[in-house]
Amino acid sequence: MNVFIAGGTSGMGYALALHYLKKGYDVGICGRNPEKVPENCPENLNIFQADVSEPASIDTAVQFFLKGGKSLDIFINCAGSYAEDVAGKISYEEAEEMLQTNVLGTVNCFETARKAMRKQNKGSIAVIASVSGILEYEKSSLYTKTKRSVIQMADAYRRALKPFGISVTAIAPGYVDTEKLRQLNNHDLGKKPFLTDVETAVAIISTAIEKQEKLVIFPVKMKWLMKSLSLLPSSLLNMIMFRKARWMKDDPN
Q: Into which family does the record put it (predicted)?
């Protein structure tokens, strides 16, 4: 089995890469900065420099990985960009990076995987969204809107690719205890409810891909919390989410 993971140089992507290597699969990963990969990484891990926001970049990385006529069995897009703008302002550069990575990058990854798998009439594509993406309300953050679009794009590609034996799985996790999450929160995760450890997240994601699930939301408590919130009027949800964001920023005003 051949697995390629975009955004696999750190965090959840790297953990998934190690998982598939242990299963004896041929694994390739890419990221904007390959130097993020730990120095003690397995020698048989194929590492590429690529930016998902540039179609030619991700295409080239996958083509090098598949040289020799290999098939692409699993493609996972773990690349993502985050900045919170509910209780504060973000820069244009931060907004642009989220749109380029989370939206355009998702399309580019789908297209790269589609072209490779369409030739072989089989394969599994998975994309990491966010549990926040299941909420739809007027003043949701740009991050939430981009991740909601990821879920919708996955649904569109699933419908289009199903006749060709290609499955598409959207993963919408809550908070996963990665180093990136710790850095974003000054290593204090006390305000992150229903925190999931990386090993559990890897098990859930890999199982969902194997079973060709359509949409997987975890942990279960976060799933039902978000589904309950989605039933509220938009005005009330706006207020709740604004106060939640302000609380996480320790803003008393």
A: Belongs to the short-chain dehydrogenases/reductases (SDR) family.
